[in-house]
Amino acid sequence: MSLKGKAAIVTGSTSGIGQGIAEALAAAGADVMLNGFGDADAVERQRAGLERDHGVKAVFSAADMSKPDQIKAMVADAEAAFGKVDILVNNAGIQTVAAVEEFPDDRWELIQAINLSSNFYAIKAAMPGMKARNWGRIVNIASAHGLVASPYKVAYVAAKHGVVGLTKVVALETAQMNITCNAICPGFVKTPLVEGQIGEQARANDMTEEQVVRDVILASQPSKRFVGIDELGALTVFLCGDQASSITGTSLSVDGGWTAR
Ligand code: NAD
């Protein structure tokens, strides 16, 4: 599957799933704009590594996905660097685990901003160029929690359900323009985000981290294993290819059977 000549933005790609998706898109030949927080040297090694290993152009934007003006500037910077944005992967996300009545107001607001509103602002900014070129691929990294709920994740579950709804509307508005918009709904993937959550849940429930992984995390997934980052990269590359041009408005579960229950 070649994406040679295409230009992509992957938000939240300095770690975890986004890093893997950026790598997969570059391996398929796409130029990539990385984004996210992280140690400057590590980010530069990652950026230079994509160029060295895959012969693509790679740039980095430090835009904060909770800030609409910075999101707009990120898209403009990508258009300046590549001449266009063909592929937008909205991946940046954060998580907080707490009961509804104890859930901090500021975390609710921040989770909506990063996990949901950033998708809207980035799509809004990239859409005029995609429409003008009559080609676009938007992949929103939602979650199994965009389809089903778990306790203590009120802000995350609400935001990810919002991403699934936003995905459908964008797909309907662009269905005749050779632009697709889909959500990927992963189950548990072993990334820094989930490792933090394992620690939080272990402390809150007086369990060991091994018990949380076995009895809480993997208990949700009939496959009894974490989803691989490479599996999400491969699906994203497929969704960005021409063979996936009729797949739009869907939410693709990659969750080891979790949401089939
Ligand atoms: P991660 O913590 O490893 O990576 C998150 C990335 O987002 C990092 O690059 C971080 O710098 C970036 N980021 C955070 N806040 C940002 C901000 N304000 N502006 C710009 N970048 C920001 O997490 P992950 O597990 O790789 O999660 C990636 C996405 O996948 C998230 O949307 C998450 O909700 C979703 N997801 C993860 C899992 C899982 O099990 N790990 C499951 C389903 C969905």
Task: Explain what you see.
Belongs to the short-chain dehydrogenases/reductases (SDR) family. GO terms for molecular function: 3-hydroxybutyrate dehydrogenase activity. By secondary structure, this protein is α/β, with parallel strands linked by helices. It has two domains: 7-187 and 228-251, Rossmann fold, CATH 3.40.50; 189-226, no CATH class. The chain has eight helices and seven strands. Helix 3 (68-82) packs parallel to helix 4 (105-133), helix 4 (105-133) runs parallel beside helix 5 (154-174) and helix 6 (192-205) packs across helix 7 (209-217). The mean pLDDT is 97. Bound molecules: nicotinamide-adenine-dinucleotide (NAD). The site of nicotinamide-adenine-dinucleotide (NAD) has 29 residues, from helix 1, helix 4 and helix 6.
Can you tag this structure with a few keywords?
261 residues; alpha/beta; Rossmann fold; globular; binds nicotinamide-adenine-dinucleotide; NAD(P)-bd_dom_sf; 3-hydroxybutyrate dehydrogenase
List the topology elements.
Layout lengths: L6 E4 L5 H12 L3 E5 L4 H15 L3 E4 L6 H15 L4 E4 L14 H29 L2 E6 L12 H21 L4 E8 L5 H14 L3 H9 L11 H12 L10 E4 L7
Parallel strand pairs: 1-2, 1-4, 2-3, 4-5, 5-6, 6-7
The structure holds nicotinamide-adenine-dinucleotide.
Organism: Thalassobaculum fulvum
GO molecular function, one term: 3-hydroxybutyrate dehydrogenase activity
Protein name: 3-hydroxybutyrate dehydrogenase
Concise synopsis of the structure shown:
The chain is of the alpha/beta class. The protein has 8 helices and 7 strands.
Strand ordering within the main sheet: 3-2-1-4-5-6-7
CATH architectural designation of the largest domain: 3-Layer(aba) Sandwich
- How far apart, in Å, are the first and last alpha carbons? 32 Å
The name of the CATH topology of the largest domain is Rossmann fold
**Whole-number average pLDDT?**
97
Please state the overall shape, judged from the principal axes of the Cα atoms.
Answer: globular
For the record, what CATH class of the largest domain applies? Alpha Beta
Find the structural class using helix and strand composition.
alpha/beta
CATH superfamily of the largest domain: NAD(P)-binding Rossmann-like Domain
User: Can you write the helix and strand succession as a string?
Assistant: EHEHEHEHEHEHHHE
Protein name: 3-hydroxybutyrate dehydrogenase
InterPro entries: 3-OHbutyrate_DH (IPR011294), NAD(P)-bd_dom_sf (IPR036291), Sc_DH/Rdtase_CS (IPR020904), SDR (IPR050259), SDR_fam (IPR002347)
Organism: Thalassobaculum fulvum
GO molecular function: 3-hydroxybutyrate dehydrogenase activity
